[in-house]
Write a structure and sequence with these properties.
The protein has about 250 residues and is of the alpha/beta class. Helix content is about 35%, strand content about 25%. The protein has one domain: 2-Layer Sandwich (BirA Bifunctional Protein, domain 2). It is globular.
């Protein structure tokens, strides 16, 4: 399978989620896989696709605090995107490939990338307890997520639809996740302190360092990828922008 690589840089939440959804369409159409790296133009809460957030967060309060809000195409719980690097993988998803197998392969690439930065991570065991209903994404690691000494460093989620998959996740440089509870209108389950690259390394790696480590790990695992033109990516994202920009979608439950 041919791999591509794309650095989208900092964009708002609706644009980033539109790109992830659109690049799933591209994977179906082309049969190619893509590793994308991106950031966020302002602090943003992202909600899981089926997560109930109405009444838990107030959109007017978020705007006053200059915090964006977007609903992901994947499941999971709320997380804060700020001092972190987000990755996404879009690829064909054969019917005979189990979700756990694709998750394991992508995690192996992430582990290799983080090792290049000087941090050794492990996959959280299957026995890891599930997060309570009111918890945020980083409150507890789910089975298979990447941890350092039991604390989550990378939060990931995967969705598979109509022969394609999207897995995306947040690699923390610093721990902004406690701010979620400060912004919530209702009490949230207290989160364990997350692992961060800064705490592990004693310094904060740059966005470029994390991006380059991800690209090098992809090249090592799959061969040197070709770049993808940003205009082509934007063309696939265009049909999805109205949904992810819509307050009706973001605050629907």
């Amino acid at each position: 399978m041919r791999w591509r690589f794309l650095d989208s840089g900092d964009l708002d939440g609706a644009e980033q989620m539109s790109l992830d959804a659109g690049l799933m369409d591209r994977a179906r159409e082309t049969g190619e896989a893509l590793l994308r790296v991106y950031g966020w133009s302002r602090p943003t809460l992202s909600f899981g696709r089926h997560e109930s957030v109405r009444g838990r967060f107030d959109p007017d309060v978020l705007e006053l605090e200059n915090v964006g809000a977007v609903r992901r195409p994947t499941g999971g719980r709320v997380l804060m995107h700020h001092h972190e690097v987000t990755y996404s993988v879009t690829a064909p998803a054969p019917e005979d490939e189990r979700l756990k197998e694709s998750y394991r392969r992508i995690n192996a690439m992430l582990m290799a990338a983080i090792a290049r930065l000087g941090v050794q991570v492990a996959a959280a065991p299957v026995s890891t307890p599930r997060r309570p209903g009111g918890a945020a994404c980083f409150a507890e690691p789910s089975a298979g997520e990447l941890v350092v000494d039991g604390r989550k460093l990378v939060g990931s989620a995967q969705v598979r639809e109509r022969g394609a998959l999207l897995q995306h996740g947040s690699i923390l440089i610093d721990d902004d996740q406690p701010r979620i509870a400060e912004l919530a209108a209702q009490p949230l389950t207290p989160a364990l302190p997350a692992a961060t690259l800064r705490a592990c390394l004693g310094r904060s790696p740059t966005y470029d360092e994390v991006r380059d480590a991800l690209g090098a790990a992809l090249a090592e695992a799959e061969g040197e990828p070709s770049g993808l033109d940003a205009d082509e990516a934007a063309r696939f994202a265009a049909p999805h922008r109205a949904r992810f920009s819509s307050a009706e979608w973001t605050w629907r439950i």
